[in-house]
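Hello Y.,

Per our agreement to keep a running log of every chain we model this quarter, I'm adding this entry. I've kept the format consistent with earlier entries: sequence first, then predicted structure.
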Amino acid sequence: MTSSPAIYADIEKCVDAIIEKVGKDIKFGMPLGLGKPVHLVNALYARAKKDPELKLTIASAISLEKPGGSSRLEKNFMGPFSKRVFADIPDIEYVKDLRANKLPSNVVVQEFFFKAGSFLNHPGQQQNYICTNYTHVVRDLVRLGVNVAAQIVAKRTIDGKTTYSLSCNPDTSLDLVPRLRELEAKGKKIAIVGEVNNNLPFMVNHAEVEGDAFDMLVDSKAYEYPLFGAPNMAITPADHMIGFNASTLLKDGGTLQVGIGSLGSALVYSTILRHEHNDVYQTMMDELQLSQKFPIISEIGERGRFDKGLYGCSEMMVDGFIYLYRAGILKREVFDDFDLQTLINEGKVHQKVDMSALDALLERGVISSPLKSRDVDYLKKYGVLREGVEYRGGSLVIDDKVIGADLENQEHRDQLVVNALGDSLKGGIIMHGGFFLGPQNFYQMLRDLSEDENKKFCMTSVCFINHLFDHFYGDQKLKVAQRKEARFINSTMMYTMNGAAVSDGLESGKVVSGVGGQYNFVAMAHEIDDARSILKMKSTRSTPEGVKSNIVLNYGHITIPRHLRDVVVTEYGVADLLGKADKDVYIELIKIADSRFQDELISQAKAVGKIPADYQLPAEYRNNTPERLMSVYNKYKAKGFFDPFPFGCDFTAEELKIGKALKGLKAKTGTRGGMFKAILDAIKIKDVPQDLRPLLQRMSMDNPAGLKEKLEQKLLLSELMG
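Predicted structure for the entry above:
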């Protein structure tokens, strides 16, 4: 390891130094999402474009790009929005060239996770995709031959000491850098590089590192830029109902993993609804008859407030966790000591310190009586004793008072209570996360955390979070103790009736996104007695051929195998599949399918002999229709609940109207027949309604030039007027 990094105010000189250190065959590893050092990778990429002898392999995931749109309508809509929301944020140049199919032959981009659907029709990226579990990424980067690892970092100086924060992406870096240093010690040429950007929230705990973690640092205000903010997407009525159903499975005092996207936001919203408006929440549960129809809710879930609170353990710290924290839900602290954590779980040690904590630790054999020096250090570390307590000559000393250390002596005990006990436990963590990415206000909320609050959020290695056993971050027993009543909640695209999940790709072989950490969390749930894996899914999807069921008989690609089936949630309910016979698995899934497809699914299941030939679906599951859900949804929305953007919105009111119209138009024109009907409806429009003129102006379509533009204007008007 280097003693101190070389610091560069000129990024080109840093590129020179990298090439000098590792040569012209560069395997450049970067974190997924936000943590990419944009200026550095752009400079290195530009150098590779100029120098064909420089071979550059870029290994990463989720290369962020500003939304642009493909059609003229989409470009007219997204252009002004992107300019407003993403102003001053630099583009990642290799992504722009990928989109334009202009990547030079000496550059290869390999990713292990795509933004969903972003490279579905890009042969190059489909061919270069690396399929791997998140926890195996470091292994695969090493096998790929990565010799440069780089990311953006935050910097701060306190009392003359400068440290750096891996902030949004310690997820793989905390494990990759030591592996690369091992290879360096064996003679491999390695460069570890940081690009300072103080717009990053400075996260402490595991994310805070010394300067000697890096070989080189790019540190200049000229290279700082606003962080890429991923706008909140609208939570649809179906999303909200899925989130509501999933929230009934959470246990007060438990553990929560939340996935990215509108389904994750919907879950967070309903969790807060349950806590802050519990009477409304319970009334809605009863109206939907959830507990009666789905016994699992009473078996593993609850419907009350979160008095004990939740602990977050999630590979992605989504912005929802901050909203849960602000609502007083994310508050259950976990500790890095197995004995202490176990006693807390058993209710023998509490957050507010009293003598019962000492007694419980003594009974368990963690401390001795009389107290020894090591006992005092241990008790001070966790706040059981005050910071100023010292051990001298067999006694405790604080503020010049000498206190006996015999816990079985009542006088000593009384003196301890008055003079030495701490107020509350310290060192607890309420959130372990691997990486974060979200809207701009999320980053500001993280920057606004006080120092004490910051210490409760630990950004760390994905290997710590995503599974129980690892070589670097403590034993399995401690993680199990921390993750009690865990609900590992993720999303999937489709589910087969025999219990397999389709989450990352299509049966054609095309990759939609990636496995990421989903397999890890599903498998981990099966290894912890009181944990459950919960996969959320919309029951249907819209296609050019019409609406189709996402619950299917079979599919030619799976992400999660059927033997790891557990809980599946749709907008219509909760299917409990754990440990059940195939017949019951098929039936449970049919119960939460859209009723338009239930008869077909029943017929298919009977045809393959998986459910009895005389099976009849009970009447209470026969009303799984969008119309019924909308009636319930609209009733509560009219009361002020279930806003499509409960956590803020970057779109203007005009843009929301236009966006909804564009989405509807795209769905209608997805087939030849649909296109023909849409055109017939559009050409009937003669005049532009006055109230829609501002929307056309926003789309730069108020003065169409030719026949095609006039038709596009009428198509948009038809949808806006519909």
